[in-house]
Amino acid sequence: MRTRLLIIISAVLIMAALVLTFLVAPPIEGQAESYRIFYFHVPVAWTAFLAFLLTFAWSIVYLKKRDMKWDFYASASAEIGLVFTTLILITGSIWAKSAWGIWWTWDLRLTTSLVLWLIYVGYFLIRGYVPDEERRARFGAVIGIIGFVDVPIVALAISLAPTTHPPPVIFEGGLTDWREVLTLLVGIAAFTVLFFVLLGQRVSLKHSEDTLKKLKSE
Amino acid sequence: MSSLAYLCIAFLAVWLVLYIYIFILHSRQVRMQRELNQLKKEKQQTAK
């Protein structure tokens, strides 16, 4: 019931974000239409950071309590975070090509984002290579905690070094029109709810896997 | 390519990747459920 409600809320918010992005958000003078990528590039980045923050928190809880449930939540959140980081890189590259004429440049924001993606690819590679469940969970928790260090670096990269990436707009008065603020907030809400829907699906999949394992071993 | 085309490609890319991920999760869930039902049925038959 709760999952169904979340799915409905997510669908409504996604539709609203779609309408706001393409029809309501005002054009910006001197900016090409592709600037609207911003309205899903930023929410996707926010969702990836949220996913890694939860992975970080649940990894700490796992190391304290040694309960496999927390390891599972941490890895499920990291998996969704990895999907969203892939989306950051894809939408960022397309926006870069449109705005700068190049798909990629090795500046601090882009490079640290790629490093973030690689850290969580490594997280799953290492988990895949460790057969023992306890050790796998321990290694995963350590990477989940250390890997999170890159998240604030990505977030602050545009303030730390000269970059071609657009400056921060959210907390520095970059969004002046209420329609821009509304579009961004609805986009963030839509992807956040979608994240929890996906997490719920992942958890239910894990429960089915566990029941199947139990039945097979009986 | 026009700026609008880049916007549409980026938008489609987001939903394509998410659709693939959701599809993978869903098909794993369906396969798992099918296996579970089959196993339960087998267990019931052996119990009889």
Structure, described:
- The complex is a heterodimer of chains A (218) and B (48).
- Chain A has 218 residues and is mainly alpha-helical.
- Chain A has a domain of 147 residues.
- Helices cover 79% and strands 0% of the residues of chain A.
- The longest helix of chain A has 40 residues.
- Chain A is globular, with a radius of gyration of 19 Å.
- The two termini of chain A are 31 Å apart.
- Chain B has 48 residues and is mostly helical.
- Chain B has one domain.
- Chain B has 1 helix and no strands.
- The termini of chain B are far apart.
- The chains are: A mainly alpha (218), B mainly alpha (48).
- Chains A and B meet through helix 2, helix 3 and helix 7 of A and helix 1 of B.
Number of domains of chain B: 1
Taking the alpha carbons of the first and last residues of chain B, their distance comes to 68 Å
What structural class is derived from the secondary structure elements of chain B? mainly alpha
Oligomer type:
heterodimer
Question: In percent, how much strand structure appears in the residues of chain B?
Answer: under 5%
- Measured as a percent range, the helix fraction of chain B is over 70%
Q: What is the helical fraction of chain A, as a range of percent?
A: over 70%
Looking at the structure, what is the overall shape of chain B? rod-shaped
Largest sheet of chain B: none
How much is the radius of gyration of chain A in Å?
A: 19 Å
Helix/strand order of chain B, N-terminal first: H
Terminal-residue CA separation of chain A: 31 Å
Number of DSSP-assigned strands of chain A = 0
State Rg of chain B.
21 Å
Instruction: Flag low-confidence runs of chain A.
Output: none
